[in-house]
Amino acid sequence: MDLIDLRKLILNSGFTLKELLKIKRSFIILHKDAPGIYHKYQSRTDCFCHYLLFIADEVSLPLTFSTSVCLFIISVMFFSDMAYGIPLMSSIYLFFAISAFIYYSLSVSCNLITGSKLLIFYIRFKIKTSPTLKFINKTLIKITNYKTK
After folding, report:
1. Is 2 exposed, middle or buried (0-12, 13-18, 19+ CB in 10 A)?
2. Total domain count for the chain?
3. What is the pLDDT of residues 96-117, one digit of tens each?
4. Which distant-in-sequence residues (6+ apart) come within 8 Å of 5 by Cβ?
5. I need a labelling partner for 111 at 20 to 30 A (CA). Which of 8, 24, 54, 101 fits?
6. What is the Cα–Cα distance from 47 to 26, expressed in whole angstroms?
């Protein structure tokens, strides 16, 4: 994804100017706290966009992995006649997903609303950059446009 599309995605993700300035301020403060990460992203063409992707990845990584693992476990339970355990597994998943979301949102120094926007931004970024998901997304858009005509 080129920088213009990445900037459009950031602007269309619902971040307010105050939230973006706070993230930018934390990026500048990062120079004192973790100079290795700062220099890694400072050397890029548009360091702030890549830093935003970095912290969005940190917020969403536990949720994306736990979702795939829990969906696999729930589907195995469904097909092995242990459907009585699905509500328990779903509640365990929700507990761990919410706990991980709160922990990782606060670990990158943002509140829960900004963390949820980062999570949605990263999921949208992955959909736009993944070739398989890009094909599915374009197909669904064509189907939707065909039905509305």
Report:
1. exposed
2. 1
3. 989 999 998 888 888 889 989 9
4. 128
5. 8
6. 13
